[in-house]
């Protein structure tokens, strides 16, 4: 019989299995490579006598319920009791799951646990099983324990995993043993960043490395012999056309500038749209962007600038792969970068102790290196922190046992490249360039050593389906840990993550969905178990998000380290007729930053995210707790269910027959205590406010829930004299810049919607063209120059065999500039003679602007 | 009417064990560790042998197998003893009728070796415990009334708010055997003392109206039978164990 057959039968005996994975050694004592002599070990790390040659293997010890009739082969019937609580899902965090096991201790002959029993063993061996197990495996803390549930008579292979945890505590209570195990995700808390690389220190003194604008700056440095100075006045990146936004004195006009960085491969093919960077020009009268290339195939970058929200100009080319590019726009014109100028700076080394004498400085072409005393724990390339400075290295070589870091870049992320002396500690730091947030989530799980527990099917599907902005993270140089980063990431994705009943780390978006189960008084809820908690303490009427982190040296909760803050407010909830006060929740995120995409797209994303949070929090979300029988164990954590019980009432006194989300689940023998949270899905009017920043006007946008999916028609491109093409554009390109345009959008099932005032707006009426935003523009570059090989479906695909789809942008409505064709967009930097396809996708489904006005 | 037997002094544990073959993870010495969850298993079917070599002669009048698969394996079993330089059949080939405890009495023999041969068709034989030795024979059956075995089952039923039966969780308690003996010859007290001394914590075989692998109950208190007459007035044995 199957597991389900037993589970659904009226009577059955529940049996638990617990499997603990211990670390053992696969060597044979005294035989190569083991060089140990004397009394033999037990092939465990604790008893090892030749740790240098310890060869890691796994040894699983297995236990089953003590009241089992037919003991499964290989299992010891020691489990006296099991209690476990699955994760508890709360608004902004997941409370980890927990297992408590009580086991009987026993005498043991050691036959199964002593690899050398035949030489020294005895049937009446002294000591008890667990006392010896703990003594031989002192490192049992942190080992994985898998708890399985089944029934008397069920084959072991059909048992179901109900929890996978890591052992956090074990105690011997003279005759019984208690083992406590925590959630796998809780283990992420153990990975603190930055963390010191054990045993790795600075091997030789490291000179300071200054960056100055010119010679006068160099000569005024407080430098000593051996210090380096990088002069930026030799940099060769300048804007290249006549659009110089200079004032009468020739200085760049302060304001809001945009730079788009297109990435090309060695064949000059556009392969990515790496970064949109938005610096604000301040008193220094220069725009400076540092960006980290993310695409390993990148060969060249073409940078476009856009100033004062109006004029686009070709800014610069950067030729050649560089690990980091600094681009400075001083508003000068007609100066072209030359590839022969690479690198774009000059570096000097002070040859004496007199930095004020220009003759003391000698130019050097040699890249800086740093000596560390050991390569242990160093990655092949990456970032490290020495004292307060962040340093990048492209590789290291071993010289006399030292790891000599190559192509070192000093003083990154606004840290100072100061002197460091031999013996200084070396730290590894965490840093994420803009990427798909689910790719980042997988990376965090990998760094935390738990990727093997990830529900890869679910996470990969979310990764593939992601159409929102990339996420990024400044270097973590202030105390943080992987758990904090991971759950911040989940919160910003409007998702939850937990270890599910199958022992897998899963991720799920918080949203309503068709319930899979109904929990009713009649056939599910055990008599006397229902309980309702009004749960008023979580009510919030506004949620404020601090984002775009600019200062990595400050803590994550320091508001001054964020450039942006956005608030979502439910004004009705704060009115005198309702709560009559501001109930505020403040959130801070590492993950949404200005280098993640265009400002409009980021604003749209943040606004939508906060809207969802306020909608969820503005009403009390009652918690209904009840017990169900084992037959209902298919109701899993995170599922949406109907609850039909007279324990809950609506205003009319009827059962509050509504959606609930299972947020906690506690199996207790053949009962499961479920905590279900009321999942209101009522349309609300939310106001988004972004407080003013430098040179940015405040915008208030009132939004409401989105109608059906919207499509566009008649995608065309401008061939120099007229617009041609249809929805499917294909042609051999004869221009480097292509202007695209397309018709207004329309909904698939509705042609009109109502605005906030109740006025009907036609979605295909040209007069209402401002209502739609968020078109995604995709570019397809064919692999083959000779023929056009577009995607078979003409839709963007991550795995198109015929070429590469690149998402160029999400278009805000400000690009509407034609009365006939309402949407227009220019793609620059393409290759003449190459085949390209373009695709304009459906807009985002989540939101729609109804009124858009400047205010205050 | 037969009387109860107890086989507790397992001579197999005092000998040197060997097996014709052994599957990985099923050490032959598991058959003497008094644990039913560890076992010896041959690595194939056919005729498989467990052999014990003693130092000197040992008196054997009974033997037992606990937690085995010999019924599932449709095995025929034979026990031979090495007596005065040659193998003698102590128990002739027989077919196993269940996977429950096997207990056999044989003519008392002094042996220097024992050889248990299990012949199976397609399933490798597996045995958790192999007992052999001199049994303790009670002079009389237990007093009436006597229940051969008392099996306890705890049942926990859950009902819905409207009264529907939702499910039942069934948990088995260890079975118990309580035997009271009256007017036993006082000379038997010596054997009882030796038995209790050996089995206060160790399990043993109880054979009376069925064969059981049992231990003295955890709360059992041995009250040494005393009598000024030639008969012990009464004593009890409280035993418990797992079914099968």
Provide keyphrases for this structure:
heterodimer, A: about 850 residues, mainly beta, 7-stranded mixed β-barrel, 6-stranded mixed sheet, about 40% strand, globular, B: about 240 residues, 7-stranded antiparallel sheet, 6-stranded antiparallel sheet, 1 helix, 15 strands, flat
Overview of the molecule:
The complex is a heterodimer of chains A (856) and B (244). With 856 residues, chain A is mainly beta. In chain A, 9% of the residues lie in helices and 39% in strands. In chain A, the strands form 16 sheets. In chain A, strands 2-3-4-7-10-9-8 form a seven-stranded mixed beta barrel. Chain B has 244 residues and is mainly β. Chain B has one helix spanning 188-199, and strands at residues 5-7, 16-19, 40-41, 46-68, 76-83, 86-95, 102-120, 126-133, 136-137, 153-159, 165-172, 175-185, 204-207, 211-216, 231-241. In chain B, a hairpin with a 2-residue loop joins β5 and β6. The two termini of chain B are 25 Å apart. The mean pLDDT of chain B is 92. The A-B interface holds A 10-14, 67, 69-71, 73-77, 106, 109, 111-112, 117, 121, 123, 152, 521-528, 530, 627-631, 645, 669-671 and B 13, 25, 27, 29-30, 32-33, 35-39, 67, 155-156, 158-173, 242-244.
Terminal residue distance of chain B: 25 Å
Shape of chain B: flat
Tell me the overall shape of chain A. globular
Mean pLDDT across residues of chain A: 75
Biggest protein-protein interface? A-B, 40 and 34 residues
**Strands side by side in the biggest sheet of chain A:** 2-3-4-7-10-9-8
Supply the helix-strand structural class of chain B: mainly beta
Separate helix tally of chain B: 1
Counting copies of identical and different chains, the oligomeric state is heterodimer
Enumerate the spans of chain B where pLDDT stays under 50 for 5 or more consecutive residues: none
Helical amount of chain B = under 10%
Total number of β-strand segments of chain A?
A: 59
**Unreliable segments of 5+ consecutive residues of chain A:** 235-245, 274-278, 280-286, 307-316, 319-324, 328-344, 691-711, 744-749, 763-773, 812-819, 842-856
How many runs of DSSP E, i.e. beta strands of chain B? 15
């Amino acid at each position: 019989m199957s597991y389900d057959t037993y589970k659904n039968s009226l009577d059955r005996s529940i049996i638990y299995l617990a499997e603990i994975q211990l670390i053992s050694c696969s060597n044979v004592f005294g035989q190569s490579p083991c060089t140990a002599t004397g009394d033999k070990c037990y092939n465990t790390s604790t008893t090892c006598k030749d740790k240098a040659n310890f060869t890691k293997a796994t040894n699983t010890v297995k236990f089953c319920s003590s009241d089992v009739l037919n003991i499964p082969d290989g299992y010891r019937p020691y489990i006296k009791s099991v209690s476990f609580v699955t994760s508890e899902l709360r608004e902004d965090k997941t409370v980890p799951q927990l297992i408590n096991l009580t086991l009987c201790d026993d005498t043991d002959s050691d036959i199964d646990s002593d690899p050398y029993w035949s030489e020294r063993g005895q049937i009446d061996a002294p000591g008890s099983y667990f006392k010896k197990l703990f003594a031989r495996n002192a490192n049992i803390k942190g080992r994985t324990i898998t708890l399985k549930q089944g029934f008397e008579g069920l084959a072991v292979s059909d048992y179901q995993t109900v929890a996978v945890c890591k052992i956090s505590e074990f105690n011997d209570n003279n005759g019984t043993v208690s083992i406590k195990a925590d959630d796998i995700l809780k283990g992420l808390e153990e990975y603190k960043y930055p963390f010191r690389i054990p045993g790795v220190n600075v091997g030789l003194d490291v000179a300071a490395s200054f960056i100055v604008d010119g010679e006068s700056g160099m000569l005024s440095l407080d430098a000593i012999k051996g210090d380096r100075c990088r002069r930026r006045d030799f940099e060769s990146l300048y804007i290249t056309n006549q659009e110089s936004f200079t004032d009468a004195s020739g200085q760049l006009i302060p304001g809001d500038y945009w730079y788009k960085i297109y990435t090309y491969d060695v064949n000059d093919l556009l392969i990515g749209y790496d970064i949109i960077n938005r610096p604000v020009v301040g008193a220094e009268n220069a725009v400076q962007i540092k960006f980290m290339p993310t695409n390993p195939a990148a060969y060249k970058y073409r940078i476009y600038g856009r100033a004062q929200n109006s004029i686009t100009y070709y800014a610069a080319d950067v030729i050649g792969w560089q690990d980091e590019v600094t681009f400075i726009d001083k508003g000068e014109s007609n100066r072209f970068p030359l590839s022969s100028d690479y690198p774009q700076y000059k570096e000097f080394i002070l040859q004496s102790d007199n930095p004020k004498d220009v003759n003391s400085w000698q130019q050097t072409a040699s890249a800086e290196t740093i000596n560390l005393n050991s390569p242990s724990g160093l990655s092949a390339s990456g970032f490290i922190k020495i004292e307060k400075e962040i340093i990048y290295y492209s590789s290291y070589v071993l010289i006399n046992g030292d790891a000599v870091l190559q192509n070192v870049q000093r003083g990154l992320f606004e840290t100072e490249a100061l002197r460091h002396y031999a013996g200084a500690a070396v730290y590894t730091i965490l840093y994420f360039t803009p990427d798909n947030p689910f790719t980042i989530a997988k990376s965090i799980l990998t760094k935390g050593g738990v990727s093997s527990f990830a529900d890869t099917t679910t996470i990969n599907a979310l990764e593939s389906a992601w159409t929102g902005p990339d996420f990024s993270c400044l270097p973590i140089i202030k105390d943080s840990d992987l758990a904090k980063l991971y759950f911040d990431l989940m919160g910003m994705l409007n998702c939850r993550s937990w270890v599910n009943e199958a022992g897998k780390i899963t991720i799920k978006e918080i949203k309503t969905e068709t319930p899979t189960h109904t929990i009713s008084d009649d056939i599910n809820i055990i008599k006397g178990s229902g309980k309702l908690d009004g749960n008023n303490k979580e009510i919030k009427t506004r949620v404020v998000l601090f984002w775009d982190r600019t200062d990595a040296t400050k803590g994550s909760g320091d508001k001054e380290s964020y450039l942006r803050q956005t608030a979502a407010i439910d004004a009705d909830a704060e009115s005198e007729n309702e709560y009559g006060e501001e109930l505020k929740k403040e959130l801070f995120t590492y993950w949404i930053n200005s280098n993640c995409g265009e400002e409009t797209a980021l604003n749209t994303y943040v606004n939508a995210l906060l809207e969802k949070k306020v909608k969820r929090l503005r009403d009390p979300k009652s918690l209904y707790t009840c017990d169900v029988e084992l037959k209902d164990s298919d109701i899993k954590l995170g599922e949406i269910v109907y609850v039909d019980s007279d324990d809950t009432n609506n205003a009319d006194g009827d059962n509050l027959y509504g959606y609930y989300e299972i947020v906690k689940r506690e199996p207790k023998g053949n009962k499961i205590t479920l905590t279900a949270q009321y999942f209101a899905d009522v349309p609300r009017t939310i106001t988004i406010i972004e407080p003013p920043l430098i040179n940015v006007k405040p915008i208030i946008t009132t939004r409401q829930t989105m109608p059906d999916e919207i499509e566009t028609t008649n995608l065309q491109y401008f061939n120099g004299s007229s617009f041609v093409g249809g929805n499917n554009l294909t042609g051999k390109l004869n221009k480097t810049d292509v202007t695209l345009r397309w018709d207004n959008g329309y909904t698939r099932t509705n042609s009109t919607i109502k605005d906030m005032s109740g006025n009907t707006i036609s979605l295909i009426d040209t007069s209402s063209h401002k209502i739609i935003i968020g078109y995604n523009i995709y570019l397809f570059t064919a692999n083959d120059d000779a023929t056009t090989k577009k995607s078979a479906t003409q839709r963007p695909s991550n795995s198109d065999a015929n070429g590469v789809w690149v998402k160029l942008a999400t278009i805000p409505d400000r690009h509407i500039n034609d009365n006939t064709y309402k949407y227009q967009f220019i793609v620059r930097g393409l290759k003449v003679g190459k085949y390209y396809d373009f695709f304009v996708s459906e807009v985002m489904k989540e939101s729609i602007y109804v009124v858009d006005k400047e205010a205050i | 009417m037969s009387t109860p037997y107890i086989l507790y002094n397992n001579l197999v544990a005092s000998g040197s064990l060997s097996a014709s073959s052994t599957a990985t993870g099923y050490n032959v010495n598991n058959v003497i560790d008094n644990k039913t969850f560890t076992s010896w298993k041959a690595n194939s079917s056919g005729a498989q042998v467990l052999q014990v070599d003693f130092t000197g002669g040992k008196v054997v009048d009974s033997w037992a197998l606990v937690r085995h698969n010999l019924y599932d394996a449709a095995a025929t079993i034979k026990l031979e003893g090495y007596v005065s330089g040659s193998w003698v059949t102590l128990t002739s080939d027989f077919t196993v009728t269940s996977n429950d405890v096997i207990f056999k009495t044989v003519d008392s023999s002094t042996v220097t070796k024992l050889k248990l041969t299990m012949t199976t068709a397609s399933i490798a034989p597996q045995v958790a415990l192999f007992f052999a030795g001199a049994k303790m024979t009670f002079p009389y059956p237990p007093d009436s009334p006597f229940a051969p075995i008392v099996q306890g089952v705890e049942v926990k039923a859950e009902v819905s708010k409207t009264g529907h039966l939702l499910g039942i969780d069934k948990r088995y308690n260890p079975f118990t055997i309580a035997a009271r003996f009256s007017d036993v010859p006082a000379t038997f007290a010596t054997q009882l003392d030796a038995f209790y001394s050996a089995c206060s914590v160790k399990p043993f075989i109880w054979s009376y109206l069925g064969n059981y692998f049992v231990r003295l109950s955890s709360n059992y208190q041995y009250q040494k039978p005393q009598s000024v007459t030639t008969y012990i007035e009464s004593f009890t044995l409280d035993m418990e164990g797992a079914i099968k």
